């Protein structure tokens, strides 16, 4: 028996945990002879372990030991009595069969891993940041959820499914477009930062930096959005582009509000939405008072103090609203 054939048998017995003490010493001596021998054994052991893990993950009812015995039986079967196989050919067949079994198991593991889905849901009351394997970052608003295929960084297209609202900072990679599927829409970028809001049936995308393609899923029409532009998709299938004056829609992420020469009625409308409060302006003359200011992580009481001082008004708390008077 040639040495190579002998060590293939020792490796197969080692993987099956059927080595005697003498065979163990012999295999260890062979591993110590050359670095490539140890490397081969490690690779075969790794593939074998992954094949076992793959079997457990899929929860199959396949009896691997029985299947291997059938392979052995076929290899050693003397189905044609007049035909004599030389030992060299027989052990080479064992080695080839063992390699084939492990290779197929490895392919199965690879296929399974590529089709695994990673899901992250933000069930907290505050926003959460998620770092993707390709270096991109996602900030999830409360209640938002994203999912993507495992091995995202190695795929030809980096695709993410989103429900809810999230802010993206995408790692630039011209060879691997980044695509977000949300509420029947598809947003595609190469590297940029933008906000996607799919909390309702109306989906919006607002671009902070870079360039974004925004379209209906499987639709031909698309919008190209630049910084300062917002695309909106409605349930009837229409797409519309508009400009935004400020980034107050990102309050959930950065806790900032900015107003520049904005009428009081518009300021209070945004504050009502963000802080879940209600304002009543008693005089129509007060509605168009202009305000230029900014807030950072401010409480509703701090905001009211600034409004009163800046506009020379009085804001009083009633049972279910804040009343704005002169």
Describe it for me?
The chain has nine helices and 18 strands. Strands 1, 2, 3, 4, 5, 6, 7, 8, 9, 10, 11, 12 and 13 form a 13-stranded mixed β-sheet that branches. Helix 1 crosses helix 2 (21-33) and helix 3 packs across helix 5 (87-114). With 326 residues, it is an alpha+beta fold. The longest helix is centred in the N-terminal third of the chain and has 28 residues, at 87-114. The N and C termini lie far apart (104 Å). The protein is elongated. 18% of the residues are buried. A hairpin with an 8-residue loop joins strand 4 and strand 5 (158-169). It has three domains: 3-114, no CATH class; 117-246, Jelly Rolls (Sandwich); 255-325, Phage tail protein beta-alpha-beta fold, CATH 3.55.50. Helix content is 38%, strand content 30%. The chain has helices at residues 3-15, 21-33, 35-58, 64-76, 87-114, 251-254, 264-275, 284-287, 300-311; strands at 117-121, 128-131, 137-140, 145-149, 158-169, 178-182, 185-189, 193-198, 203-209, 212-216, 222-225, 229-233, 239-243, 256-263, 279-281, 290-296, 314-317, 322-325. InterPro entries: FecR, FecR_C, Ferrdict_sens_TM. Residues 257-324 form the Protein FecR C-terminal domain. One of its GO terms (molecular function) is sigma factor antagonist activity.
